Structure prediction request, 200 residues.
Amino acid sequence: MDESTHAALASGRAEPALCLFVGSLMEMRGISDAAAEAIAGIALEREDPTELAPHALDMVFAAIERGPQPTTKSSLRYPELSGLPAALVDAIATAERGRGWKSATRGVSQLQLNLSGRAKAEIIRIEAGTAVPRHSHKGQELSLCLVGGYSDGRGAYGPGDVSVADPSVRHQPKADDDGACFVLAVSDAGLKISMLDWFR
Prediction:
């Protein structure tokens, strides 16, 4: 992650999908709030000051008064996701109440998370022993393994592991044989799949 991305995260200017990804990663890896604040503070010191929106302070106080919103862990379609970081569970529950899970291909389903911004975030579920079609990427994709495990020819990934792919990467993630795998994927441009790859 480059310095400008660190600064954007620290100042709250980062894409919501990236904020969710980094927050989930830090919580899954047990990085303390104090360590996160230290990292954010260093990045924030390098930021140029900017004008706040006219009602920024009012919005902050309103959010504080509302307090944390209740999570709906018990109502998730896949109960194994209920132990994930609270912000991610909330995003999953909201998305399930919206468009819900969609089948991408045999054994693979996707849940688009309803986040603002240009970057797209989704949860991908891959059945045990199933591979997604071989593909490359139009831009950058960050993948955080949430539950289960998978491999893609470049490495093997379990809960808390991150894979980074860009247009130079062509791979075929396959879930481990012992259970379904769930991944949080954040992409700025989507996948590139040729028809030949789709039918392999």
User: Anything to note?
Assistant: Confidence is low (pLDDT under 50) at residues 38-44.
